[in-house]
Amino acid sequence: MTTEQRSELRERMRQEIEVLETNIARLEDGLSPVAPDVAIGRLSRLDTMLNQGINQSSLSQSRTRLVRLQHALKRINDPDFGECIECGEAIPIARLLALPECQMCVECAE
Ligand SMILES: [Zn+2]
Questions:
Q1: Domain segments of the chain: what residues?
Q2: What does the pLDDT look like over 88-97, one tens digit per residue?
Q3: Where's the Zinc finger DksA/TraR C4-type domain (predicted)?
Q4: What residues contact 101, with CB distance under 8 A and at least 6 apart?
């Protein structure tokens, strides 16, 4: 990996982290509990609960991804960064740019 590629990748990770942090904050705002006496029908209350379920799962996915990205960003200067943890081959830069937190090459990931 060249120095330019590394800094491009670092920039990419920072952007992704920023987007994720914004999304997580938004999801958390949307997760306020449904007030029991709100004048909404039974069905719309069910809708709200359903939506909250969806928010809850994308929230936990976003959090997991955020932790992985932060971890990858910390390791980006390590000599073995960008190597597949399974086979030790260098992960192609295109894959890393598309999925900066990945730790395996395409073959091993499958
Ligand atoms: Zn591999």
A1: 3-78
A2: 999 999 999 9
A3: 80-110
A4: 13, 65, 68, 69, 71, 72
